[in-house]
Design a protein that fits this description.
The structure is a single chain. This protein is α/β, with parallel strands linked by helices. It has 13 helices and twelve strands. The protein is 53% helix and 12% strand. The strands form three sheets. The chain has a six-stranded antiparallel β-sheet, with helices on one face. Strands 10-11-3-12 form a four-stranded parallel β-sheet, with helices on both faces.
């Protein structure tokens, strides 16, 4: 419970609170002009100070962390489980929270000095408040743990965004954060929400990976398992063959010189064979010439002329005989030359055949050595290829394992989601008697505001817990605000029944903007009834023109619950003694 808020500056208008209904009223004086406004009087600033004393994060140039408040120190007196103490925090050193009055009965406290003053870090103070107000476990695993700052923000809503949806307290609040903390406040198993988010994270990562794999953007996961298995078999076969080749590989120390000699013999064989072909063709021509060349007979020559009617004289006949004799000598000499050349070519061809046989035998011996041995360089290359194939095989095996693991993870995520949905459904049913209480309390609160009671709906789905509020004519902004009011008031009463330490609820004037005057009157009266019946505290801020005096029940003395009046006629009438309009986000 909050007892008072004070500051170290004399201009600050301190305020004291009591159990039950407490109102901060922003009034408009007769001296204020039309240009004066009740925005900046300090209603929202008071909410910021409460959050500041409850360990809110401080951002430079936002909220209270502005140069004008650099020397300010705020103190809030509060009590937890009957023990009253004071919390002091300076704007200039927000990481230090000084607490006076806490006894040693609380565990995990910093040491106190002789004046019972303890110095907390901001993180220590949050952890202590989490245990004291909401019985939270110590911060740590799992990843998605309930947060004191998130929980307290449902009981001290601040900023415009906090009044947009009953189940969230800031814009773009993650679904898991909302589900986890609402589950805790409504008596459900919050760990299921943490597990759901962990599954969603894994599923998101797997879906992202699957998209990359389908686009061949992940080399180490490329190809289907079937294709990878086919590649594995091929590589294994190649490795087996190269392994056998290495086992049978014999290195000859003069392999290179033998290879060069074999190459030279091959060139020589080609040269000898080519020359032998030319000689054989010439031999064939010479043999044909010998067989076809013979000297013509004298009779045949003269017979031809006689048939033509030519008669030769004796002298001519003698000349023809001499010519015939000369030609015969020429033919005989040519025949002797051809026969001599034929003999020479036959001898040369025979010798060439012999050399070819010798060269062939010599080369065959060298080739046999080359075929049964190898060079060291070749063996090294063969080993390198073997090692490369082995590495490729390991890479493919790793790809197969990763791909199988990815597919296995996808199946496991789907299975775990289904199992968690079943578990959450069973837990939802088993805890029915527990969460029925806030549902009934919400119904009672809404029935106090409207003729037909609203409904707080809690469902379990495949993606987590789902919450909804149904109130007739809920399309208007005013009814939307009252959904938040009814839920917050139900959470306060339910938390008290469960024995949690939280026993106060704070609403800024934003809660009542746009709300029909009859519902404003009913809400304020209902808050007083619940707070007085449960021994808790409801603090709200209102503008004076929002007070529905004509709609209160007879006997309801609203002004008796006003703890502080802020005015706009003079800066001295504001909370800080100066005009100040804090930005959200402290």
């Amino acid at each position: 419970m909050i007892h008072s808020v004070a500051a170290n500056q004399p201009s600050f208008r301190g305020v004291e609170f009591t159990p039950g209904l407490n109102v901060i009223l922003a009034d408009r004086t007769e001296e204020s002009s039309r240009k004066d406004t009740r925005n900046g009087l300090g209603k929202s600033t008071l909410v910021e100070i409460i959050h500041f004393c409850l360990g809110a994060r401080v951002r430079r140039d936002r909220g209270l962390a502005i140069p004008a408040l650099e020397d300010w120190v705020f103190t809030m007196e509060m009590s937890l489980r009957g023990e009253r103490f004071a919390v002091t925090r300076a704007v200039a050193s927000p990481n230090t929270v000084v607490v006076k009055g806490l006894s040693d009965e609380w565990r995990d406290l910093p040491s106190a000095d002789l004046m019972e003053v303890r110095s907390f870090t901001q993180a220590q103070w949050r952890a202590f408040l989490g245990r004291a107000l909401f019985s939270l476990p110590s911060p740590g695993a799992p990843k998605y743990n309930p947060s004191f700052r998130s929980l307290i923000s449902y009981f001290v809503r601040r900023g415009h965004d906090a009044f947009g949806d009953p189940f969230t307290h800031f814009r773009r609040q993650p679904a898991w954060d909302m589900q986890l903390h609402m589950a805790l406040l409504l008596g459900l198993e919050w760990r299921h929400a943490a597990q759901w988010q962990a599954i969603k994270d894994r599923d998101k990562d797997l879906k992202t990976l699957r998209k990359l794999v389908d686009r061949d953007a992940v080399p180490h996961l490329g190809g289907s398992v079937g294709k990878l298995e086919a590649e594995r078999v091929t590589l294994a076969q190649e490795i087996e063959e190269s392994s056998r080749a290495l086992d049978s590989f014999r290195v000859h120390p003069e392999y290179e010189s033998i290879r060069r000699e074999a190459d030279q013999l091959t060139e020589q064989l080609h040269r000898e064979a080519n020359e032998n072909v030319v000689a054989s063709r010439r031999l064939s021509l010479y043999r044909q010439a010998v067989e076809s060349e013979e000297a013509p007979s004298a009779d045949s020559f003269e017979d031809v002329y006689e048939e033509m009617g030519v008669v030769f004289s004796q002298q001519v006949r003698r000349s023809l005989a001499e010519a015939r004799e000369f030609y015969g000598l020429v033919v005989r000499d040519r025949r002797r030359f051809l026969q001599k050349e034929i003999a020479r070519l036959e001898s040369r061809i025979s010798e060439a055949d012999r050399r070819i046989r010798e060269l062939t035998e010599s080369r065959a011996g060298l080739l046999e050595i080359l075929s049964t041995h190898g060079a060291l360089e070749e063996m090294v290359k063969l080993q390198e290829r073997h090692v490369t194939r082995c590495r490729e095989l390991e890479r493919v095996k790793d790809q197969i394992e990763r791909r199988r693991q990815m597919e296995s993870d996808e199946r496991r995520v789907a299975r775990e989601r289904a199992e968690l949905a079943d578990l959450a459904a069973r837990d939802h049913d088993e805890r029915r008697d527990l969460w029925n209480a806030p549902v009934r309390l919400f119904n009672l609160n809404s029935q106090a505001l409207y003729r037909a009671p609203g409904r707080l709906v809690i469902d379990t789905t495949d993606s987590g817990l789902k919450f909804n509020i149904e109130i007739s004519k809920s399309g208007s902004d005013g009814i939307g605000k009252m959904k938040i009011f009814c839920l917050d008031l139900a959470l306060l009463e339910f938390s008290t029944r469960r024995g949690l330490g939280i026993d106060f609820l704070v609403h800024d004037s934003e809660m009542f903007d746009g709300v029909d005057s009859r519902q404003r009157a009913a809400a304020i009266q209902r808050a007083r009834e619940v707070a007085e019946a449960t021994g808790t505290q409801y603090i709200c801020a209102l503008n004076s023109d929002m007070v529905p005096y004509d709609d209160f029940r007879d006997g309801f003395a609203f002004d008796e619950h006003v703890r502080l009046r802020l005015t706009d006629g003079d800066p001295a009438g504001t909370l800080l003694g100066m005009v100040f309009d804090p930005a959200a986000g402290v």
